[in-house]
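Q: Hi! Curious about what IclR family transcriptional regulator looks like structurally. Here's the sequence.
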Amino acid sequence: MNDSGASSSKPHGDGRVQSLDRAFDLLEILARDGAQSVHGLHEASGLPAATVHRLLTTMHVRGYVSKDAARRYLLGPSLVPLAEGATQSVAGSVRVHLRRLADELGESANLAMFDGEMIVYIAQAQSTRSMRMFTEVGRRVLPHATAVGKALFARMPPAALEGVLSRLALPRYTDKTITTVEGLRESIERAARDGYAIDDGEQEVGVRCVAVAVASGGQQPGFAISLSGPTERMTDEFIERAVPQLHRVREEIEGADDGGA
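A: Let's find out. The predicted structure is below.
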């Protein structure tokens, strides 16, 4: 770290540019924790306050951060078209994997990610069966009753997870919906231990879903892939067979995102 507070543009030994690395760190903190003061970002990032201020000033001019009435910084409107473009890019590149999962396993395959503290579905390959699950692309739901939400929660940094759980609404949708933080935390811990998460009729009666989280760009998981279908077909035996297939696809996507390294 440059203790003088200079925002250096010197590349790291691995080719990364330090000032860009630091700016992205600040944006990720704002995405994770919400509005922050310069001091709050200094504390969270470990960067000198002067460096934080200079980076924020540049991003504010470009619209990548904005200020609220309390002069705290938050994510800005210039990020919206970037996020929309990235979402479409991810959905397009993953769609072929979803189609293969749906064809091989006979159930609908989905791609979902967090949008704030909601889950948004961004792609689906439907099962060819006459009785199948359909999730509208663009649909937003609370994460606590979904397999994709719990899979993503299971890979969150602990501090970020606890922050979300402390303010997340947990409405009941079915008799199986988890409606307590303690119960949700237990389900998330199980997903972390098992490497996959299950929605066992928690969002809709008679529907079961299994999901795994997928890392994006080698960072924290950016989205999750899942299979969903009627409970009578989504048996424990089916899930035991499906989970290795989901992890195979996860590895293929992560490998492609890392440039095949």
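A: A fun detail: The chain has two domains: 18-77, 80-257.
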